[in-house]
Amino acid sequence: MTPHQVRWRAFKAAVPYTLPILAGFAFLGLTYGIYMHQSGFNFIYPMLMSLTIFAGSAEFIVANLLLQAFNPVGVFFITLIINSRHLFYGLSMLDRYRHTGWKKPYLIFGMCDESFSINYTATIPDGVDRGWFMFFVTALNQSYWVGGATLGGLFGSTIPTHIKGLGFVMTALFIVLCINQLRHESNHLSSKAGAILAIVMLLIVGQTYFIPATMILVILVFTIVYRQKELTDDHH
Hints:
mainly alpha; globular; Brnchd-chn_aa_trnsp_permease; cell membrane; transport
């Protein structure tokens, strides 16, 4: 198989996984581009920011911060807090990103919630290169966001953004990915523990901080569990 055929096969395998994200990202990207336009920025700003930052929530905040006094330290810490969950995404993808060569830096840079979910849970068909599959998933998802942001910046307020039900697209996508992951698990201990810990942390720390709090707690709990298991296996 030629390198071109390898890439084409991986691209065809990746596209169906990203189509549900196209609807959500195009809409959210349009909203972001329109917001930037209404804030007085040329379409170049949302286009370049979506290319170089690619972190939806952070991009909205940076747009607001651009209108204020220059404060790079504040921007750094705000962005770090907002995207702290990506630290845990990275830990989860260590094994999957091995042996991906020059694609690895882009896979790390382009990792968003949706790309992480697909690349972590997808059952890659036989004969499809894993590295290229993850690359195209990441690149397609970013292209949807960049395209939406650019169009929103170009056409401004002429595009309607209030489309009933579209806001549920991303939630539905994550539910489907979760169900698919449950179907392929040999046991559901991790999923059940994660769900319980998430609910507990939501009740304790509230909606704003429960995601990073849950991830920290999950890592601590499973580190202890697996170390205990290793000690037990050593004794046997």
